[in-house]
Amino acid sequence: MDEVLEFTEEETPQELARRLNLPFTDVMLLSRALTHRSYLNEHPEAIEDNERLEFLGDAVLDFVVGAWLYNHFPEMAEGDLTRMRSALVHTEQLAEFAQEINLGPAMRLGHGEIQAGGRNRPALLCDTFEALIGAIYLQGEIQAVRKFTDPLWETAADYILSNHKNEDPKSQFQEWAQSEGYSAPLYITRNASGPDHAKVFEVEVIVNGRVYGTGTGHSKHTAAKAAAMAALKSLGLVPDPS
Fold this sequence. Notes:
- Helices cover 57% and strands 10% of the residues.
- The chain is mainly alpha-helical.
- It folds into two domains: 13-162, Ribonuclease iii, N-terminal Endonuclease Domain, Chain A (Orthogonal Bundle); 169-234, Double Stranded RNA Binding Domain.
- A three-stranded antiparallel sheet has the order 1-2-3.
- A hairpin with a 2-residue loop joins strand 2 (200-207) and strand 3.
- The protein is globular.
- The chain starts with 12 loop residues before the first helix and ends in an 8-residue tail after the last helix.
């Protein structure tokens, strides 16, 4: 998975399996992992969407990430391990993994979903990645999942630690506010734009009547975290890579 290939056209499940060296003898299982319910609605010959595999993959990811962190960070405390696991399996991070392996062209989506930019939607990329993990587990058990995911964790964990992505910026900012004698930060949604399937929220964080940071995201929660991180950077409490 060192090289990420770019595709301008749809990719078949067989092509995806060959490109990523996935251990699939049951191509129908892989096809199901890539099938969104919008595709099912338009193709009656398709039997099942990927939502059950997504459920399974979510559970498998929690286990393999937890085991990987336990083995790779023997001195890390339980609370820090929990935060690292959360950082590695949240929606945006799993969507980044999906983009890293160029999963979008292989996703089986309905025409309307494709036209709406579904191949680049973080939520859909995340869901499909989880379903793919579920399918890999059913095909090759936990060792196959580990072989596929371990290189992803290695790179992402280094980035998360170096950029403090494992730390909850809202909690950090609240601790700062309390240490200064202020009340808890107030998060205000200032704007929401874009279509329903790709809504972008803009949130400001305010302490003592002053705006300390602004953030955007595809959910209010993500935007609020981005606002808190911007506030921490403005105060010099975390390094700003820019």
